[in-house]
Amino acid sequence: MSSSRVEFMRSRDPGAPWPGRGYLLPAGRREQLRALLGRVADLTGRDDLWDPALVVDYAAAHDVLAAGWEILLGALGAHPVGTNGSAGAPVNGSGPVPDELIELLRALKAFDDDIRDERLLLRDAALARVREALAALRRIDATATLVNEAAVAVCSLGFDRAIVSRIDHGRWLPETVYVGRDARWAEEILAAGRENPVVLDESVPEWDMVRRGTALLISDAQENPGVNRPIAETSLSRSYVAAPIVAHGSVVGFLHADCYYQKRNLDETDREVLAAFGEGLGYALARSAVLDRLNAVRVDLGNLVTGVTTALPVADWSLHRPLDPPSDPPASNGHAFLQTFLAPGDDGEAALTRREVEVLRRMAEGDTNARIARRLVISEGTVKTHVKHILRKLGASNRAEAVSRWVQLERQQRVPGE
Questions:
Q1: CA neighbours within 13 Å on the CB side: how many for 155?
Q2: What's the pLDDT score for residue 118?
Q3: H or E element, residue 29
Q4: Which structural domains are found in the chain, ordered by start?
Q5: What is the largest CA-CA distance in the chain?
Q6: 316-327 burial code (b ≥16 CB/10 A, e <16)
Q7: What's the whole-model pTM score?
Q8: What average pLDDT score do residues 144-149 get?
Q9: Which element (helix H / strand E) includes 108?
Q10: Average of pLDDT values for 152-173?
Q11: Range among 44-53, 98-107, 345-354 with highest mean pLDDT value
Q12: pLDDT value of residue 314
């Protein structure tokens, strides 16, 4: 992989740890903090309160403000106000008087309150984006499209990169990777995960998501021996959050996200945001699985009327419990037909989904993948996935052959017996 995108990124990234955790302070706020703590140092002689290179996030700012508050209170206690309300003697004959200390304490408190409110607003805005992203995904009926667009939606929440994975009989298999700035890097991360599937057991942190159904936060991705090493080494991730995808009571997949380009270590707020999105995605996937199967049944019934036999689709993603052995008998209850999580699989000729038909119609009009993506308001990567599924389902070797076969099938359905 000497000429790979990974090697190029590694040559630019020395792997040094990133300072801070969670949402980063804006530059203006950092300057205000620097000025306030400078005043604390001037009044008390304490210039060891903070390292500007390390105090770059909201949580660290709260901590250093609390330390400054304690130092000022200590200085104030040494110089109480006189009984007549006048200021006490200065420290060492020229130090601060209580009025100066009190004014600075008020300034620290006001600044701390302001950045606390900002931090809450950032969290609320992220959760609002979760609602918006899930509302957009609810308009997607085909599961294959939903899975691809879910990775893009994760990055709309404030993350830089996202992985959507499925669980296949106890193995963790990445399904799609989205890196907004670098599609080639996304492909290499996806390949690394698929070529080295991880068995889910107690040795990997993701096991807790399967066992408990709760999201997790990994702060030391490069040093943690339990993480998925192929993905960690290919992605160069420092820290990440992960959330389970739960459908019909079972964990069927994972979401992973980080903030590599922001050079930001993640925190509990990021974990909470991804967990909320993962919960909503599970409901959306269960719904799309039903629609996929019902659409396949409808098309198959139509084909039977015209004498064209089409096999029912075979599931790629399963909604049974993820760690059951493959030899387990299929469910016999009324939800047996819901055993799909992606679009129909490789076995047998499968019916096209509604979105695949839309893409095929655009192909028939001569549209490129980029133009199809713009017209359908989806990513170009999703279009490529649809084209791949269309070729496979129609048994075609290229786009022209796929269009030709589709036209023939359409004609057969319009004119029975032709």
A1: 17
A2: 95
A3: helix 27-44
A4: 18-124 (no CATH), 140-282 (3.30.450.40), 288-414 (1.10.10.10)
A5: 108
A6: bbbbbebbeeee
A7: 0.67
A8: 87
A9: helix 98-137
A10: 93
A11: 98-107
A12: 37
